[in-house]
């Protein structure tokens, strides 16, 4: 059984829906998962010896949604180095925009920079091909859940 904090960045609720389905799937596998919207660094730090799953869309021109920017900025300015953090990442975007999944890519790059350990590959969901993002994310989460110790 693993403990997972699911951190959401959303504008219109798609990423939240994906996160809530992920929470249910992980719970069904015997893990303890909790979704955080408008999270802060204290929430993130609770999972230092556990797992985090970042589920974020992209807005503007490859930007993170406002709901997750404060977390991103405090990780960037306060943590610096977090080699014990194990994370997964689901990025929602739309390939008709120039910076496809730019928000998720920025988050992944920050965690890589800080030596966090990614578990599995980043999932990128293209809204122009998959209007129901959970149809892509649910199978990915089922697999991701098997990688947790
Ligand atoms: C104003 C606006 C800007 C967007 N900019 C991008 C972008 O730069 N890159 C991208 O991949 N997707 C972009 N998208 C697509 C969204 O990320 C995508 O529709 C996503 O599913 C929205 O999820 P959410 O409801 O959780 O915010 C944009 C969407 C809107 C409405």
UniProtKB/TrEMBL annotation:
PANTHER family: NADPH OXIDOREDUCTASE A, NITRIC OXIDE SYNTHASE-RELATED. This is Flavodoxin. PROSITE patterns: FLAVODOXIN_LIKE. InterPro entries: Flavdoxin-like (IPR001094), Flavodoxin/NO_synth (IPR008254), Flavoprotein-like_sf (IPR029039). Keywords: Electron transport, Flavoprotein, FMN, Transport. GO terms for molecular function: flavin adenine dinucleotide binding; FMN binding; oxidoreductase activity. One of its GO terms (cellular component) is cytosol. Residues 129-149 are annotated as: Disordered.
């Amino acid at each position: 059984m693993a403990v997972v904090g699911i951190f959401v960045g959303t504008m219109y609720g798609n990423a939240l829906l994906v996160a809530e389905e992920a929470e249910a799937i992980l719970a069904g596998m015997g893990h303890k998962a909790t979704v955080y919207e408008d999270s802060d660094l204290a929430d993130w730090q609770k999972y230092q010896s556990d797992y985090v799953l970042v589920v974020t869309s992209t807005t503007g021109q490859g930007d993170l949604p406002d709901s997750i920017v404060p977390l991103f900025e405090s990780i960037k300015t306060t943590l610096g180095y977090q080699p014990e953090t194990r994370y997964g990442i689901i990025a929602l975007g739309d390939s008709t925009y120039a910076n496809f999944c730019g928000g998720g890519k920025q988050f992944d790059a920050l965690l890589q920079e800080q030596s966090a350990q990614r578990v599995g590959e980043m999932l990128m969901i293209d809204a122009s091909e998959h209007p129901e993002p959970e149809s892509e994310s649910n199978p990915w989460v089922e697999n991701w859940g098997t990688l947790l110790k």
